[in-house]
Amino acid sequence: MGDRRVVPYEPAHYIEAVGTPQPPDAGQFYAQHPAWTALIDDRVAACAGIIIRWGGFGEAWAIWTPVAREPRHRRFIHRAVRDGLWRIITERKLYRVQAQIVSDFWPGRLWADHLGFKEEATMPLYGPNREHFTQVVLFP
């Protein structure tokens, strides 16, 4: 299975996860909020966290790399994100966590469901390429 571990998020992890040329400050925004990175054999598998908007409200985000999508790693990634999500919810006393998912990206919607999120709203033409999104919400 390889060496698997969860480490504090660093902006360089975002650049590695996204993979396309990025400006030097890419990923800095996420470093201002609670976030973590799952590594497999020292390769970034996934980055995730919660952007704290105010008080008890946050927005969850996650980036999976091809490493994380390998079937043998999915359970590790799911647990790492689930545990990190709940750690932040508990530590920050969050009462609402929301996320947006491209509406026709069924693996993402199914995963959000497994994490306990419920569909809240449809967001037509929300994405940068006019994609429709679905907003999901978790009330801990």
Task: Please describe the topology of this protein.
Elements: E1 4-8, H1 11-18, H2 28-31, E2 35-40, E3 43-54, E4 57-64, H3 66-69, H4 74-92, E5 96-102, H5 106-114, E6 118-123, E7 133-138
Parallel strand pairs: 4-5
Antiparallel strand pairs: 1-2, 2-3, 3-4, 5-7, 6-7
Produce a short descriptive summary:
Helices cover 31% and strands 36% of the residues. It has 140 residues and is of the alpha+beta class.
What does it look like?
This protein is α+β, with helices and mostly antiparallel strands and 140 residues long. The protein has 2 domains: 94 residues, no CATH class; 46 residues. It is 31% helix and 36% strand. The protein is built from 5 helices and 7 strands; from the N terminus they run βααβββααβαββ. The chain has a 7-stranded mixed beta sheet, sandwiched between helices. Strand 3 and strand 4 form a beta hairpin. The longest helix is centred in the middle third of the chain and has 19 residues. 31% of the residues are buried. The mean pLDDT is 93.
Calculate Rg over CA atoms: 15 Å
Strand content: 35-45%
**Could you report the average pLDDT, rounded to the nearest whole number?**
93
Poorly predicted spans? none
What is the helix/strand order? EHHEEEHHEHEE
Question: What is the number of helices?
Answer: 5
Helix content: 25-40%
Distance between the termini: 32 Å
Largest sheet: 7 strands, mixed
How many domain regions?
2
Shape: globular
How many strand segments? Answer: 7
**Strand ordering within the main sheet:** 1-2-3-4-5-7-6
Return the structural class. Answer: alpha+beta
